[in-house]
Fold these 4 entries.
Entry 1:
Amino acid sequence: MASRQVDIRFSSSLTRRESADGGRLAVQVEDKFVKIRNVKLDGRTEGAVDSREKLLEFCFDYCYWSVDRADPHYASQEEVFQDLGVSVLSGASEGYNVCLFAYGQTGSGKTYTMMGTPDSMGLTPRICQVRWLINTQLSFLEIYNERVRDLLKGGEQKKRATLRVREHPEKGPYVQDLSSHVVSDCKQAIDLLEEGIANRITAATHNHDASSRSHAIFTIQYTQAILENNLPSETVSKINLVDLAGSERADPHYCRDRLTEGSNINKSLVTLGIVISALAQNSQMSSSCQSINSVASEGDGSTVGSHSSSLSGGGGGRRHCFIPYRDSVLTWLLKDSLGGNSKTIMIATVSPSASSYNETLSTLRYAAHARNIVNKPRVNEDASVRLIRELREEIDRLKSMLLSFEMQRNPSPSLSDERDGNLSEIVLQNELKVTQGRHTCLHLPV
Ligand code: ADP
Ligand code: MG
């Protein structure tokens, strides 16, 4: 069953420059609604011909007002964590892949939300502090100019090396040679996070403001050992925490004089925009066709199957748009998070200042688009355990069939015996497979 997995969260902050600019606000937040007012049209006389809307309203899953600490509605880092961080952790502990990414213009609070400051911790360190971080591996990378760099690799030479992105037929896209660090407690996790942030900042100092031009992905891979039907099993969940470059880089006018770098940063953000709108379009199309499909596919699982594969971007059914994940490194690496097996949360950060009206409106529109995407997350269960469970269910089904045949044995014993013989044979074979499955590792697509 499909479930909506892209939630939109709105947080806002007012930069010093904007406060100095008179502090005129263009945005109001009321519960889950955001109203944005075009102050340039304030003097417009009623009835004047102007196609521009004076007041626009958007609805999101959560809206946070983090402008003025003295404001009674001020949303703190802790409040944001209690809503979003906790839902990331509960998704991962249920065995799902989870992704949380912050999108918005430079200075609007993406890094503040994702990483925070020493006296006001953001989502990533808060998530790392949670006690269940046992059996956990961490990696931290940066995409700058369409090149991937490991933020946790020792030695200057290694730090500067560009890594290749490849695609595994079952596990999907990955970064070749990216270092992965096993951590056994929260302190180790926080130390690695800080090391990676420091590497990012060092690069930023040498390279002007590179950190606001790069995308950073911190990945926590969490393995849980469970006992299912008396069989040891494992679920592996991946949490991707993403701090993106400023969204104004996606504006072609912005980087006219920074051609190569600009166009590459553009490439990731522009592609992200295209991917999000194509996924949203496909999801909307799917939901409107769902009732028709469910009638047409009664008794035929294949229609539903092809329908869901095109939703995740793999099938590209005739009515569905092609999703150009591979057009940029960012979208390629986040393929599953954006349109596949992941519970994904997007946090749109905006400045409420009137001087940022255009950027804020474009971020809100972007977020409204992303809200329409429907992902298909599933629990990443151990394949051999899943097979054994399915075989056991089949055995139970066949056993109950045998029993009912025996109970209503018909007058022709030879026919009934033959039928019983066949069923007994299938039950035996399946029981054999279950026993074998316990001793061998079965490699099946997840
Ligand atoms: P971005 O990553 O979107 O470019 P930053 O997160 O670096 O922006 O924020 C710019 C500055 O504003 C930083 O100094 C940050 O600490 C501060 N800031 C951003 N959002 C808030 C907020 N909600 N409360 C307090 N300070 C904030
Ligand atoms: Mg930033």
Entry 2:
Amino acid sequence: RFQTVPDLQPYGDLASLHAAIQDCVKCPLGKTRTKFVFGAGDVHAKLMFVGEGPGRDEDLQGLPFVGRAGQLLTKIIEAIGMKREDVYIANIVKCRPPNNRPPEPEEVRECWPHLSAQINLIKPKVLCALGSSAARNLLGLETPISALRGKFHYVDGIPVMPTYHPAFLLRNPNMKKPCWEDLKKVIAALKKPAASE
Ligand code: URA
């Protein structure tokens, strides 16, 4: 699923990929966005988080997870002993869906090569899918997040841990505990030496 798309092959690093796609208008979201939200963090991150798509604050600032849900994500990252700068954070779609609706399948299809190319360049050891949109689209499944979370799913050899979206946790604080259980598995996987190491 994370095949590099031939069109994006010439972009050997994230900065040139960003420059190449930041004016994208391949789907309707490109016409209504304020800013393109490429993603942010360590280009060599071992851990990469993937959310659904930019919200209002992200659309205004051009950065992922900077609103209320983003502040909770920062706390989650700190709770696992890391900093935001140590990880990479991106979204399934790079432009804000109006009124924060979930992205349409057609929008996800057009944007997928961008995320796929990012994952190929970063080569994270572990991916963490935040919420249903991210989990379903990364895994290519329609299963509810409640059934996907808590276990690793392997995509092109990369372990993907789906967990609840921080915006959902803000509305359902009792779900923070299961999210923490999921993240403990992420920490363990990050510590485990790879087979070839
Ligand atoms: N929610 C997301 O899924 N992504 C963001 O970047 C912000 C909020």
Entry 3:
Amino acid sequence: MLDLFSGEAPWQEPLAEGAVIIRRRAFDQGEALLDEIARVAQINPFAHRITPGGYRMSVAMTNCGDVGWSSDIRGYQYSEKDSHSHQPWPAMPGLFRQLAQEAAAEAGFPGFNPDACLINRYAPEAKLTLHQDKDERDLQQPIVSVSLGLPAVFQFGGFERGDSTQKVLLEHGDVVVWGGPSRLRYHGILPLKAGVHPLAGAFRYNLTFRRAF
Ligand code: MD6
Ligand code: FE
């Protein structure tokens, strides 16, 4: 096969101003990250939340950190306790925090200190429709996203829902950092294609680190 890339991982692929994919940035830590996800989910299990519109999300979610994001019939919100279990979220593992801070700095956002990590789990056919992340208080802070397990097609659009989108495959270990002028771009994940990943089995996991409060 034609090898268009023969350098060493990780490598950066710009998406738009303020948005970059750092390919394979978390590859070597994949197994340790998946172990930490399992530990968090033992304390706060993955659950399919209900949207304010009354739909059950196909993506299963949990959180770790000082605050967590969730959805229920009353709306989307960040909170210090899970509205379902009434417990604080599990602590953010040091490995997660360090990865998020380092990746943000590499992408041009030094000093990023996340207080929230949303963990999404996709089974085959699970998807995330186009949305903006705008529930965070300081939109000057970037978001760091880490993909693990099965690959998925990520849609990266404009500032209106109807704008055309770029489609990029996100694979195990890829990290996306975005902020600045791209912070409010619409984005989503197309329905996951079934497969088996050697470390994550039938699933894709995504960690998104945010400064929410
Ligand atoms: C996902 N990611 O990759 C969904 N949001 O499963 C997101 O919705 C996302 O990757 C904000 C910033 C980066 C992201
Ligand atoms: Fe998002």
Entry 4:
Amino acid sequence: MAVRLIKSIPEMQSEAESLRLAGKRIGFVPTMGYLHEGHLSLVRLARERADVVVVSIFVNPTQFGPNEDYDRYPRDLDRDLRLAEEAGADIVFNPSVEDMYPQPYHTYVLVEKLTEPLCGASRPNFFRGVTTVVTKLFHIVKPHFAVFGQKDAQQAIVIQQMVRDLNFDLDIVVAPIVREEDGLALSSRNTYLNPQERQDALVLYRALQKARQLIDGGERSSEVILREMRKIVESVPSSRIDYISIVDAETLQDLRELRGDVLIALAVWIGQTRLIDNMILRGLR
Ligand code: PAF
């Protein structure tokens, strides 16, 4: 069946209401478009568990800082519609900025604490923008569950906290990172990389692999692991580290020793492009 494009918020809301009344289970995949295999894996996962799959495509201005890439963020709705349909989406919801943020606009959702470290430290309003738009999208799409990628690990943790704290009546599903064959995590921002930078970008994955190798060998000191990861990233001249951190996977607080559920996350500039990647290790002793 051809994917249906809905642009109007009231139309999406009444469609969601009718679907719920008809007893249909709505699965939701929020995206900013320019879909790649990572997004499509989320759509396929939603397809397996839902009667109706809604994908939103909305480049959300409130989660970009003033000097970030909002204007040049890649956009291609026709391509996205085709890819979303092939992956099994029933509805693509693509509202306008004017409809999502009618002026004057004054209301934001903020998750405290968890949004301070890691990406929150260098992108101060990022999570406020994400939690605000995701709240709005949840109210509009009324999903029974929503799927987020582990690639944005902190985002998934923040949204799970928000859903618990604000009693949203839906489940959050977190899907594994999808990588290129050589290990680069898929991201719409990879399109910014020139061929040399594309090669250099592999340092993120190589640093994570080094960490895993050390941990498999019994190393539990964050200091030692972080030092080795930094060495790998700094070995390419185009790189600039934003952060490399080893934190508790629930509280996001720094860990000196790796124990329990551990998130190893990094954000690195490759030339003008900021890339993130991570790995979660559970039950370390
Ligand atoms: O992960 C993203 O693409 C965005 O942060 C999201 C969740 C669609 C909100 O704009």
